[in-house]
Structure formats: C-alpha cells, structure tokens
Amino acid sequence: MSYLIELVVRQVDMKDPMALLKKCIALTALPMYLGEISPKQIRGSLGQVTAIFICCGVFSGQVLGLPELLGKESTWPILFGVIVVPALTQLAILPFLPESPRFLLLEKQDTKRAEKAYQIFLGKGDVSEEIKEVQEEKKAQTNIQITSVLDLLRNRTARWQLITVIIIMACYQLCGLNAIWFYTNSIFTEVGFKKETIPYITLSTGGIEIVAAVISGLVVERLGRRPLLIGGFSSMAVFFGMLTVSLNLQKTVLWMPYVSIICILGVIASFCIGPGGIPFILTGELFQQSDRPAAFLVAGSVNWISNFIVGLVFPFIQEGLQTFCFLVFAGTCLGCAIYLYFILPETKCKTFAEINQSFARINKISHLEVKADQLCKTEGNEFMNGEIEVLELVNEHKKTDNEYLKTEPL
Q1: From CA 59, how far away is CA 42, in angstroms rounded?
Q2: pTM of this prediction?
Q3: Is residue 12 scored above 50 in pLDDT?
Q4: 3-class secondary structure, 42
Q5: What is the dihedral sign for C-alpha 257, 262, 23, 200?
C-alpha cells in the first residue's frame, strides 16, 4: 500500500487531494494492521516494511519521472495511470488477508477466527503462546471499549504516551527533510553537473533512502527503536549544521559543494534509518487496543498539520534566513532527540501490556490506578461495585505507591 501511494504522490505532491487522502489513510491503517499481526520479536522489522516500500515508491517515481520515460509534459497522464497496476494488484490480494487476530480476540471475542488468522500469518499450527499473550492483555483491560479522541486526551494512563507521539509526529515533518529537496538541484548545479544530468544524479537520493530504510529494518530488533530514533535525529542535526557551513562557503572554497552533497545524503540517510519509519511503529506500540485507533487519529492529524505548516512557513524562513534556515531544523532535531533520551523507554520485544506498564511511573500512575481506569471504561452497573473496591484498594496502597515513586526518580 505504501509503495502504491508514494509511486505517484512524490510526483503530484499537494496538487492531487485524492492522492494525498490515500496517503493519509495508508500511513494510518497500514502501520496499525502490521503492528497487530506481528509477533513481538519482529514487530519493529515488519513495521519498518512500511518505510521501505515508501522509499521504493519514491525511487520508482524518480525513475518514471526521467525525461526518457514518463517525465515529459505529454506523458504525465500516463504516469498518473501507472498507479492502476499496483492498485489492482492490491485489490486482488487484500480480500485473502485475514483480519487482525488482536482485533478478533479483544474486540470481537472470536477465538476461532483469531487462531486461524495467527496460523495463516505465522505459518504454524500451534499458536497457543500468541493467543495466551493476547488473552493476558484482555484480562488486564477487562472489557474492550473503543476510546474516543476526547477520552484519550483525558486519560491519565496514556498522557505521556500521547505527548511523545505528538512530539515525534510533529518533528517527523518539522525536521527539515522537505527543505532538503529545495536545495538539491541548485547544489548539484554548483558542483558542475549539467542540468540534463541532474535528474539522474538525483536518483542517488532515492537509492540512499532505500538502503538506509533496509538497514534500519535489519537492525531495529537488535538495537531497538530508541537508539535509532535518537541517533537519527541527532545525526540530522549534525548534518544540518555542516550543510549550513558548506552552503555559505561553497562559492569561496572549490571543493565545498561536494561536502554539501555528502551532507544532503547524510540527512536523508539519517532520516530513513530512524525518524522515517519508527514513529509509525511506536504509535501502534505505545497504546493498548482500545486507545490505538484514537492515537493513530491524533498522530495522523499532527503529522499532516505539521506538513501544512512546513509548506506554508518554509518559503518565508528560507527568504529571511537563506542558507541559515537549516539551523532551525537542526534545533528541532536536537530538541526532539533530547526529549526522547529522557522520556522514551525501549519497546523492543515487549508486549503491549509491558510497554503500557513502563509508562506508569512517568505518568505517576500505580498499577491499581491503571486497573481502576480500565474498569471505568466498562459498561454496565454490574461493575460499579468492582470499581469502588478497586478505588478503595488504591487509597489503601497510596502510601506505598508514593514511597515507590519517591525512590524511583524519573
């Protein structure tokens, strides 16, 4: 799906609202689905497939946009029509894919279909361990009731998860990657490449994106999400600083334009290794089943609002600061890396329940309060007594929990 969307969206950009709408849907539904069907041991790697195929779509758009292929004005309608091929392929395959087993177990209470779905996805007959993991999550949540966006914003147990996703998604767009494309052609011209050859040189950026995304997918389960995100944003900040220096010196130092090219490729590679795909993985990992749809709605909204802000504001930033505009993006990347260093826990190889519990301390929520919050989502008066009992237990253990929070600094 990601390949399908990026294939043409890279070429049409904001000019085609329908293509943009499809991209929004793909970047919301696809990571959620992949996160729910993946075993925890490969959840990050499988989630990174989204970023890999987005990069493949970008590269395909660059290739098809070459003048010898479909890059001429007379052949643009054909380029738009190319999307029909992967679209029809997708439509032919999707009906045969099972529903998410987590969705079937937690929301539909359909154990048989969930077992069959796991057997298809995992290619084995015995899926008792996976079913047990979801059943434990089900017990912890008592009764699944889809959370609205407003309820999610009010939910104390998901406060810092939501703040983290909002910051990451905002920085995903505000990190300055789109600004890089603004300078690419002019820098290649400064180096001495002819205008006719620049489209072919630009293919190197698409190739770097694919290589970096594949490397990220291979190492994300070994290194973890946290190091890749922090390292990616930090590296972008460094390369943006170097690019600012090289752009200001490239007219006086003969070899400086080559440094600018290296910095551009470095920014692109740093983005694809971490910030390019992992934010969508984290959005699915940081929230429990009932909160996940609302979380993706918030994340997607922040993502595209930030994209709109960049498109609206960047021309004024570029006009006012010229080449120093990259220092703004360097500061954004560095600020995000610092925030993630102090706030974001590692999520690799953890169940969704374990990830949710890891935020309990920073949310200043005890495990009993988490249970009370979950019971409050349950419909029916028959659970009112249970809620009161849990809340009484919370009060009894308040002193113990406060002592724990004092001894465990943030």
Answers
A1: 26
A2: 0.79
A3: no
A4: coil
A5: positive
Q: Two tokens at 154?
A: 């009010």
Radius of gyration of the chain from its Cα atoms, rounded to whole angstroms: 24
Q: Residues 155-198: pLDDT tens digits? A: 888 899 999 999 999 999 999 888 887 777 777 777 677 777 88
Query: Which of the 8 DSSP states describes residue 146?
Result: P
The pair of three-digit structure tokens given for residue 290, joined into one six-digit string: 């009932």
Nearest to 284 by CA among 27, 32, 25, 30: 32
The values of phi and psi at residue 359, to 5°, are: -90, -5
Cα separation, 188 vs 177, whole angstroms: 17
* 65-123: pLDDT as tens digits: 888 888 787 888 888 888 888 889 888 988 888 888 888 888 888 889 989 998 888 88
Residues in Cβ contact with 395 at an 8 Å cutoff, skipping those fewer than 6 apart:
none
- Residue 350, SS3 per DSSP: coil
Instruction: Tell me what the mean pLDDT of segment 312-316 comes to.
Output: 86
Q: Are 140 and 291 in contact (CB under 8 A)?
A: no
Determine the residue type at 398: K
Q: State both tokens at 282.
A: 């984290």
Distance CA(287)–CA(282), nearest Å, equals: 9
